[in-house]
Amino acid sequence: MMDMQFTTIVERLVREKGQDALIDATNCKAHLADYAHNAFKKERHLLLIAIEADAGREIARADDLATCKKQLIRFLNEERFIDEELAAEAIDLLALVLRGDRNESMARQRSGAAQTFPPRPPVAPAGNSRKPQAPWAPPVCASSGHGETDATGKKNPEGLGGWLVLVGLGIIISPLKIIGVVFPVYSKMFSNGSWAALTTPGTEAYNPLWAPILYGEMAINGGLVLAWIFVAVLFFSKKKAFPKCYIGILLFTLVFIFIDALAIESVLPNIPVLDAETTKELGRSLVACLIWVPYMLVSKRVKATFVK
Hints:
2 domains, 0% strand
């Protein structure tokens, strides 16, 4: 739960300055810094994000407080990219000091003892990640170990068959995955104010590194889409350069995911480099490299097919 000493500070602020102190974000920022003597930076940061989303005003005037809290938690999670449990802590604190409500939100009841801060990096809810996307890696079944065969049983076949069917599917799906999953999240960040909150000097969430990190992510993801299209042309035209280019894009994606995680950690040092989402994407990319890089190097089908 929220640090009790910080809760006491917020309660004192409301007693002495009135509820308006938790409604206007500009005044609240100054008051919190003064009352907390510049301590509790993570807690102040999270609370200010909630207040900038007008959570204080909505809680103060809500007729159905429980429903209002659920809607605000969902909004902070989906539109401000705050972890659901941390969003619940901020909303519960506002409900406590503004309305005397001591009921914990369902998000905190499900998770048990809550963590303390900071809010997560600006990533979308599950299914809408702005994290770099690992190349699509199809499941691989066990083989006999005696080389590839075509439908007639002849060894050492050539052409876009065998395991190359799965490679082709991955090449088609990977750019579509970036376009359909990653790019909409950037668009959402511009439309819901998150971009301005992160890159505008003077806002609580501002850091001068956010703009170059986010611009770099967008540029690299855009470059990856073009690179996958180029690799697809090499693949379907059976060009000799395909295996090396394919290996290169797999290895680049693996490195990019890790470097992007380090960049986010430099802005939010309390966020682990390998959080759950990064670990998942890094794992997918590593599996793709472990499967397909050796395949490209040793497969007789690959050597017989890509000769133009």
